[in-house]
Amino acid sequence: MFERILKQQMMNRVLYSLIPITLFAVFLFGWRVLAIVAVANIAAFISEYIFVRNKKPGKVSMAAFVTASLVALTLPPSIPLWMSALAAVISIVFGKMVFGGFGTNVFNPAILGRTFVYISFPNQMTISWLKPYVLSDFPGGFARWTVDSSMQTGATILNSFRASGEAIYSMGDAFSGFVSGSAGETSALLIILAGIYLIITKTAKWQPMLATIVSLGIFTWIYYPSENPLYFILSGGAMFGIVFMVTDPVSSPKGNWGIWIYGLLIGFLTVFIRRFSLFAEGFMFALLLTNALMPLIEYSLEKVGKK
To answer: Do 88 and 8 share a structural domain?
Structure first.
């Protein structure tokens, strides 16, 4: 199997940055999280290998494992394992291979797979969430397959705020990650540390991250003037997406003007969808819409001499 994998150091570094996030998710929700990630990676490997086996060099890129790990960590920890596999297959086949394979995709593959299962299976993706273990429960999920059924809850940070207008978790909880949510999206602290590592190792650019954070903060302040914008930046899947998906070197723009417009659009659309649509979390739709618009925007910028 290993001889069929194309080694890519940049992708290895992304996977390294996901290790603390994954281990923390296991502590919060149990070893089932690791099974979700493993199943997604196996499905991604098989899906990509089917397409590349008769082409030179006939190897699966490490990017497939990055995509699979990312999409798995954006899923609820209670999701059926087959849905994790399906999300990975959609990510690889329709997010990457139909566009020609590695380096040619228009959309971020992981967010495409996540959006597909979000729309197709809303009950599993939006209703039943697991209450996480906290430090006083140590060893927590490290000693269990999953959390007890009695620890189910119907509320994530954004779901509860949308329903009642009140925050059920403190800023500290949202920052540290001891909250209900998708497996890898709860801890803003670990995600930020991962982002710093990716920037220092020149694996990801800081400009798309900063542009999106600034835009998200400004439009949150405009649409929710009585709330702390930082709470909304730390809540939900936005921070995870900003660090790991906005920075995708293939689907993100290359020029400076394009990067700032890219971040501006993602931030605006995320808040707009959160505020006015049926969906509590708007980041995934915002990123896909911006991915679709950016080729035209970059073409227009080139025409007017702005890069």
So the answer is: yes
